[in-house]
Amino acid sequence: MKVFIFLYIVLGLGYLQASEEIDATKSKINIENITNDTSKENMQKWLDNSFGLHPYKANYILPFGIANKTYINRKLELVKYKKYEAELQVSLQLEVYKNLFGLGEKYSLAYTQQAFWQLYVTSSPFRENLYNPEAFVVFPISDKTSIFQMRSVKFALAHKSNGLPDTGDIQEFNGFNLSKSINYFYTTLRLQHTTLITDLTFLAPLPGSANLSDNPDIMKYLGYTKVKFTYFYHKHMLSLMLRGNIDSLRGTFLATYSYPLRRDKSYLYIKFFSGYMESLIDYNQNITKLSIGFSFSR
């Protein structure tokens, strides 16, 4: 398994060279003499890699991560986890419609999957996988006078879960339920001041749903508000996120830094996390963790 992660990194970085070779091969294809418009259109999409899918959140592989405490294996206590692990994230979005109300709004679907990988344990098990589909609409805002100019407002419905079975009634788990999930609504107001982007988010669980039965106190740790700052300086990109619940005095701090490595197709990526909700299975554990690796989008 450790050989696999090495190959994954090599292949991931190697794709930079491979993609250039593929693009060069595609550029030699001539479609000007094709008379069938449908065939010509679809070949052009293939040449342009234009199928509508785009990065949503950062796509990364972080082979080296260290936490301030050893993780607990809640699935099988006999297999001990370590505080060292790898982390992966894949995040894509697809625009499905736009301008329904003539306001320039865009309707999209997105999917993010995050994996916490105990790479340095025998057999290298995945500690947890998180699945996060979303549906959202973004309305643009024309604001040219404010110091912090309003750029857009986003309304979204989302689901987040670890895909594990309900184990609350199974004696071997001593009442601990492996299944963790939440369905929620959120809205984000985006503002911009030159190279500083600020996202203000308000979040609420969907009313009347049973999703909180797996983790009835999760909102104490997730919180109802979030603010994120993204700053660009030349090729550097730094983001800071604060999320919390004033009532419970529990929160999260997340910082990321990225810098392009080669032709802006891959990036050095450093992530620092401190607080709650790093993963769902340990949502009520206060964890501090530093990870480093590569991202393929920002």
UniProtKB/TrEMBL annotation:
Topology versus the membrane: Multi-pass membrane protein
Compartments, record wording: Cell outer membrane
Cofactor note: Binds 1 Ca(2+) ion per monomer.
Residues annotated as catalytic: 159, 161
Entry keyword set: Calcium, Cell outer membrane, Hydrolase, Lipid degradation, Lipid metabolism, Membrane, Metal-binding, Signal, Transmembrane, Transmembrane beta strand
A molecular-function term among this protein's GO annotations: phospholipase A2 activity
Any one of the GO BP annotations: lipid catabolic process
Cofactor: Ca(2+)
Binding positions (Ca(2+)): 123, 179, 214
Main location: membrane
Pfam families associated with the record: PLA1 (PF02253)
Reactions accelerated catalytically: a 1,2-diacyl-sn-glycero-3-phosphocholine + H2O = a 1-acyl-sn-glycero-3-phosphocholine + a fatty acid + H(+); a 1,2-diacyl-sn-glycero-3-phosphocholine + H2O = a 2-acyl-sn-glycero-3-phosphocholine + a fatty acid + H(+)
Documented EC number(s): 3.1.1.32, 3.1.1.4
Quaternary structure note: Homodimer; dimerization is reversible, and the dimeric form is the active one.
PANTHER family: PHOSPHOLIPASE A1
Name of the protein: Phosphatidylcholine 1-acylhydrolase
